[in-house]
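Hello Y.,

Per our agreement to keep a running log of every chain we model this quarter, I'm adding this entry. I've kept the format consistent with earlier entries: sequence first, then predicted structure.
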Amino acid sequence: MNVRISLLWASTLTLGLAASPVWAETDRLTRFSTMASLEDGWEPLTFPNIETHTRYTLETEDGQQVVRADADASASGLIARVELVPGDSLTLSWRWKVSNIYEAGNAREKSGDDYPARIYVAFEFQPDKAGFFERAKRKTVEVLFGETLPGNALNYIWANQLPEQSMVANAYTDKTMMIAVNSGPSQVGEWVTVTRDLVADYRQAFGEEPPAIVGVAIMTDADNTGVQATAWYGDLTLVK
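Predicted structure for the entry above:
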């Protein structure tokens, strides 16, 4: 994704959330398989400097409803705004499928920051752990956009070149860590199930305990590489 102003990406993942009931040991994300429309618990995630958006539709695959994402030199996503305290354990499970990988994709370069499939988990900003200049920069954007910005993020990707399970900082900001849960073409066209321990991943990525989760997003983007891809996303499930 083209993020020349990385805080614009963060500004779309806001904390404008209703108060949540006490956590129960079940998922807090609307299942794609039960949605009547894409607006049921999810909403579009778009970026001010990107005019061409990825197309998201509901589709039935093998008797189960999933979300299909079609990217053509485009970028946008779907986001569920939540407010969840991870505690000692919180897993995120999902299944996905892609039509192809990006030959020009490269998680270490800004020009290659595109993925046929990615899951984005955004965490609450912790001002007491931020430096003066970061707080000032964030405050400026918040005043301009009228939003409260999230902090660190985990980005689970279907990579091209990164070895599976590797973790690297995003090419634009070290506040987002990229984790290659799948990589390369060997499973292209197949449904792949992924389960991640968000607490363990956050500890490894940032060396501290995770704050509250404020957003979970899916995204298929190709605005940097200018290519095409289709991804299918099954239900995302959060379980303590």
